[in-house]
Amino acid sequence: MSDETIANRIENLVAEEHQLRHREESDTNDADRLEADQDRLRAVEVELDRCWDLLRQRRALREAGANPDTAHVRDETTVERYLQ
Q: Which residues have a Cβ under 8 Å from the Cβ of 13 and sit 6 or more positions away?
């Protein structure tokens, strides 16, 4: 997966995140829809974190003179436990 492909995925996820956050405001009267949007929003946030992590890995490998294609997508547990 190329940096460009990852960046495009990030853009799409950010657009979906914004859409979900906007829709969340209008879902306050529909508990099921609100819950579904919140669940999807959480999944999008995790996927964004994983994509950013992969992009950072690729950049670090490239800067170190290594092959960026050896970077791999880390699991949710690993990525979500990083300290901010």
A: 44, 47, 48, 51
**Reported pTM:** 0.86
Instruction: Answer yes or no: are the C-beta atoms of 41 and 25 closer than 8 Å.
Output: no
Which residue is associated with the tokens 């999944």?
A: 43
DSSP calls for 3-37: HHHHHHHHHHHHHHHHHHHHHHHHGGG-HHHHHHH
Instruction: Tell me the pLDDT tens digit for each residue of 20-68.
Output: 998 887 777 888 888 999 999 999 999 999 999 999 999 999 999 999 9
Q: Three-state DSSP class for 65?
A: coil
Six token digits for residue 83: 């300290």
How far is Cα 21 from Cα 15, in angstroms, rounded to an integer? 10
Strand, helix or coil for residue 66? coil
